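ok so I'm stuck.
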Amino acid sequence: MDREVVDQKLESLRRCLLRLETKCPLESSILIADIDLQDIISLNLCRAVQICVDISAHLIAGLEISPPGTMGETFDLLAQEGILKNGLATNLKKAVGFRNIAVHNYETINWLIVYSIVKNNLRDFNEFAKVVAVILENGE
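replied:
not stuck anymore, here's the structure
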């Protein structure tokens, strides 16, 4: 695993999460009515998901296991290897589902759900970052 690459990705993840926290409005109705905010929120959520997938791929490359067939399976493999807790892996896999909708079917996004994700589930990304930081710290 290339520590410098992973460190850079963790910093990018931190910036995405900060952007989400600072740009998410106090009320969902504001997000629903503001397409610029929708773009900022969806872009940074998609980036956060992609960064977690990229970091996970780095971790998996260092293991002697078959690579995942999908982005979501990346987190399943890390859970099977005991690197991620099952609940965190499940939540990150759901985030991949959001990313896929945002990238491929943008017009069908439910902004109430997105608002809820930003207000209630960014901790999953922070928890993932902490797991990775411990791995880097331990030199694994």
